[in-house]
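Quick note —
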Amino acid sequence: MSTIVKTPQSSSPDGVDCVFQRPLAMNDKPMHYCPGCSHGTYHRLVGEMIDEFGLVGKTIGVCPVGCSVFAYEYFEFDMIEASHGRALAVATGVKRCLPDRFVFTYQGDGDLASIGMAETIHAAARGENVTVFFVNNGIFGMTGGQMAPTSLIGQKTTTSPKGRDAAWTGQPIHVCELLSSLGGVAYLARVPLTSPKNIKLCRKYMREAVRCQLEGRGFALVEALSPCPVQWGMTPGAALEYIDDEVVKTFPPGEFVNRL
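Predicted structure written out below.
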């Protein structure tokens, strides 16, 4: 059974206990993400999971090309930079060579569900004992705001200026629903990062996903619905409201597979 390790509270110079601090698994380097983006929030949640399970010295993370391309700058454990779409192929090799390590990928929707879809499907089908932290913001954020596999019908992007047309480009890809049919999958969940309540729920789902790997149960993925205010052309507040009002209609939150 896995064990959660409680990080001791620190004290400020005036002796007052500190009840909120940076996870030990993260450093204090300023992040490069745009204002209103939830990558920073999700990074913190990853750091909290590593702390809680006492995995700082046992973790290897894999991040590919995308907005999170510099994720290795922010964590205090080993990270590998993978080619675009190949994070799960790299993670598979690492986990098979070093089965005692906790191995995770941190991937966006353009990476995981487009150029990396083959790696995603087959790693899940094989039941690779790795954990995936998936960020779905429905757009190619880093490369100029092009349409992604998860862009909504009618969503305007630089490559769909009149809105995504299902007759021309098909329907959005539902990653959790797609993977739920595969027997190698141990855990799948989706949650919007739009409120303290949902962030707390995301933390719960992430714990389940981490436990899957530590207990040798197989492939686990947590999909976070994240805003991209800059490429969506919205204020940060409006972007959060857009997820709660519109995005969840296409990508309903919840647990899809739980074989714990």
